[in-house]
Write a structure and sequence with these properties.
0% strand; mainly alpha; 5 helices; 133 residues
């Protein structure tokens, strides 16, 4: 349960820092985060070829979701965060969970869902001017 709490806290801290620091184009910031979290799994599983291939494919998939979310609509990013949270939850069903740190799936899932919920309910309040979300 600690991993979930830390994930929620980390998600809220991320949202707060982006807000406080007024980091430029919020779509780009949230897109970069989504693209990056997909590749974390690749770094954990490089010793297992099958897992490396599967995780590399998912990482590229989330990179593409992030790109289209930045270019087209922030709601695509929202979907991406929820899908990545689902990836985290189901990871141990089809991959060897010993390849990732203990409770990483719970931590990452809770962070993803926290950011996804924020984007779902508050992205409409971002300013949509000159590509700024």
């Amino acid at each position: 349960m600690t991993a979930v709490g830390i994930g929620i806290f980390s998600g809220l801290l991320t949202i707060l820092l982006i807000y406080i620091l007024k980091l430029g184009d919020k779509k780009v910031i949230y897109g970069l985060i989504l693209a990056g979290i997909g590749f974390l799994y690749v770094g954990f599983v490089w010793t297992d070829l099958q897992a490396l291939i599967v995780d590399s494919i998912q990482a590229v998939g989330f990179l593409l979701l992030a790109y289209y979310g930045i270019k087209k609509n922030i709601h695509i990013l929202t979907i991406g965060y929820f899908l990545h949270g689902c990836w985290d939850i189901t990871y141990r069903l089809f991959q060897n969970p010993a390849l990732i740190p203990p409770d990483y799936d719970l931590f990452c899932m809770s962070l993803d869902f926290t950011v996804g919920i924020y984007l779902l309910f508050f992205a409409k309040h971002f300013q949509y001017k000159k590509g700024v979300a």
